[in-house]
Structures are given as structure tokens and as C-alpha cells.
């Protein structure tokens, strides 16, 4: 099966460089009309220039594709609403949203300025939420949508110096989990991509030979699979240097201990069994996990 995007309209945020540029080029090469968003700032989010998005639009047009430039900051909801309207006015629909825009303000937590914490949350989490909120009614009305969040191994597993970034990145997975549930009946599939790539964001973080193996183009197939009509929903795909994995937020089988004054001590004694991963499961929703606990308690009461 060819992953074709003919007739589709895509918005890719932060597409003036790095991974976003590759996403935009690939979607356009496969037939999508692409709104290329980028504020054009530095890696720490400072400054802006309209030329970053326009250069990618020029590249797409030179290759025979259709694209429009947009310079909204994803952390400005009014500007995001106008961005989505720009795509609707030009092409009448939005089928795909790739939330890719991002910045870094790395520091160990002890030295981290809380203003930098908030800024990173504003761009990554609020930016993704604003973009989703702006496309949502259009996707609902057309009974079709594909949203790709860009999470990170830092959000999933942590990394020194990235408390703000990690928190904001895993928050996008939380957003994905609920939007996938709410979007299901409207044909809206929501997934998350955890890329690893050599871009200006990872410059200096890894040795040169490692960066050479991490071409941003190698991440694009995962985005295409998550943005395509055949996409799954609620999947976290990791991609880098030609490898692809899925990350899961699993739940152990755990242990029923009931209630009573000695539960803290019994829990401490049985912690290894509670955290034992054999028989891990992935609940279908938060409510399903709660129900699982209640059912277990009721079964224990029936048995006693
Ligand atoms: P990059 O710095 O080349 O790309 C980020 C783009 O977002 C830039 O072009 C920037 O101008 C734009 N941007 C920043 N703030 C914006 C705002 N408020 N509104 C609109 N555009 C804005 O870095 P890279 O690596 O291409 O990052 C793309 C995404 O992938 C980011 O979300 C990043 O956190 C994520 N990521 C990257 C990894 C990597 O290994 N490169 C690892 C994990 C996640």
C-alpha cells in the first residue's frame, strides 16, 4: 500500500526547519496541501522571522506541490485560530495536524527559572492544545482527522536538565489519550511521535558521529504512518536512525490488599509484587483502570 495524501490538507507547526520541514516536504511530495507554520525563532524560543516558513513553502512549490506559509506562534490562541482559518479559506478543510513546534530551555531543576518552565509548557503543551482545539470543530464536522503530537523520550523516560521540557512533552501524551477517546466517534485519530534526530535542537548534545546517523528524514515514515488514513489511534511511536518502536503506558497486575490499619506495612512488604511487570496491561481509559480496581474489591468482598 502506498501512503498517499492526495486531496488532504495538512498543517505542520514549527515546519521552518528540522523535523517539521521534513514532515512538510514529505506530506507535500505525497500529495497533501500543506500549511507550513513557523515562528522562525531561535532554539530557546527568542526572536522570530517570517522567512523560515516561507523558504519551506518555496521548496514545496518548486517541487510542484501546494503550500502556504504562516508565522503564528502556537502559544498564541488567536493567532492559531487565524492560522487554521487560513487553511480553511484556502482549501476548505484540515485533515491533518502535526504538532511539531518546540523550544528548549534546559537547566538542572535547581537552577531552572520558573519563567522558563512556563515558557516551555506554553509552547509545547498549550501550543499543542490550542492547535488541536482550533482544528477540532472542523475535523468533527467533516468526520475525519489525524493529529500527531510530538512527544519525546525525555517526556516518556526523563533526561537530566529537561524537567520543563519533559513535563510538557509527556503532557502531550496525556492530551493525546483523551482526544483519541473523544475523537473516535468522529473519525479523528490521535497519536504521538517520539523522534530522535540531529537538528539544531540536539546539536552539542550528542557526538558528531551519532548525529550523522540521526537524519531527521529517518523519523518521517513514523509521522506519515500516524497521519495517514490508515493510521492507528492512541499509539506512541518512537523513531530515530531507522529504528521504530512503540511506547506503552502499562499497568501491572498488582495486588489487592483491601483496607485496614496494616495496609501501609503490607504494601511496603509486597511492593515488588505490585510493581512486577509480568502480565502488564494497557487500560482502554482512565475510567477502565478505576473500574478494574473497584471490580477487584467487589470480588474480594464477595469471596469473604
Ligand atoms: P527545531 O528547533 O529545528 O524545530 C522546532 C521548530 O519549531 C523551529 O523551526 C522553531 O522556529 C519552531 N517553533 C518554536 N517555537 C514556536 C512557536 N511558538 N510557534 C511556532 N513555531 C515555533 O527542532 P527539531 O528537533 O526539529 O524539533 C521538532 C520537534 O521534535 C519539537 O517539538 C521537539 O521538541 C521534538 N523532538 C525533537 C527531538 C530531536 O531529537 N530532535 C527529540 C524529541 C522531540
TrEMBL record:
UniProtKB keywords: Oxidoreductase
Pfam name, any one: adh_short
Annotated InterPro entries: KR_dom (IPR057326), NAD(P)-bd_dom_sf (IPR036291), Peroxisomal_Beta-Oxidation (IPR051687), SDR_fam (IPR002347)
GO MF, any single term: oxidoreductase activity
Chain ranges of the Ketoreductase domain: 8-204
Region Disordered: start-end pairs: 279-304
Entry similarity comment: Belongs to the short-chain dehydrogenases/reductases (SDR) family.
UniProt cross-references to PANTHER family, sorted A to Z: DEHYDROGENASES, SHORT CHAIN, SCP2 DOMAIN-CONTAINING PROTEIN
Protein name (database record): NAD(P)-dependent dehydrogenase (Short-subunit alcohol dehydrogenase family)
Amino acid at each position: 500500500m502506498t501512503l498517499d495524501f492526495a486531496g488532504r490538507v495538512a498543517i505542520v507547526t514549527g515546519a521552518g526547519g528540522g523535523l517539521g520541514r521534513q514532515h512538510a516536504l514529505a506530506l507535500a511530495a505525497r500529495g497533501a496541501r500543506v500549511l507550513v507554520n513557523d515562528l522562525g525563532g531561535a532554539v530557546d524560543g527568542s526572536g522570530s522571522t517570517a522567512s523560515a516558513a516561507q523558504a519551506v513553502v518555496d521548496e514545496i512549490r518548486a517541487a510542484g506541490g501546494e503550500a502556504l506559509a504562516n508565522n503564528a506562534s502556537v502559544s498564541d490562541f488567536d493567532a492559531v485560530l487565524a492560522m487554521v482559518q487560513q487553511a480553511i479559506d484556502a482549501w476548505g478543510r484540515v485533515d491533518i495536524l502535526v504538532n511539531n513546534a518546540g523550544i528548549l530551555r534546559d537547566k538542572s531543576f535547581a537552577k531552572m527559572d520558573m519563567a522558563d518552565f512556563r515558557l516551555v509548557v506554553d509552547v509545547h503543551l498549550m501550543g499543542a492544545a490550542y492547535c488541536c482545539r482550533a482544528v477540532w470543530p472542523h475535523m468533527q464536522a467533516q468526520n475525519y482527522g489525524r493529529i500527531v503530537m510530538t512527544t519525546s523520550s525525555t517526556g516518556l523516560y526523563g533526561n537530566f536538565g529537561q524537567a520543563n521540557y519533559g513535563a510538557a512533552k509527556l503532557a502531550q501524551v496525556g492530551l493525546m489519550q483523551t482526544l483519541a477517546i473523544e475523537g473516535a466517534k468522529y473519525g479523528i485519530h490521535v497519536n504521538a511521535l517520539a523522534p530522535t534526530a540531529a537538528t539544531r535542537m540536539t546539536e552539542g548534545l550528542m557526538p558528531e558521529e551519532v548525529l550523522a546517523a540521526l537524519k531527521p528524514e529517518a523519523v518521517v515514515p513514523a509521522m506519515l504512518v500516524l497521519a495517514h488514513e490508515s493510521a492507528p489511534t492512541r499509539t506512541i511511536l518512537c523513531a530515530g536512525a531507522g529504528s521504530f518502536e512503540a511506547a506503552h503506558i502499562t499497568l501491572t497486575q498488582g495486588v489487592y490488599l483491601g483496607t485496614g490499619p496494616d495496609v501501609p506495612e503490607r504494601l511496603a512488604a509486597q511492593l515488588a509484587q505490585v510493581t512486577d511487570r509480568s502480565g502488564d496491561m494497557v487500560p482502554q481509559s482512565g475510567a477502565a483502570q478505576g473500574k478494574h480496581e473497584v471490580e477487584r474489591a467487589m470480588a474480594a468482598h464477595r469471596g469473604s
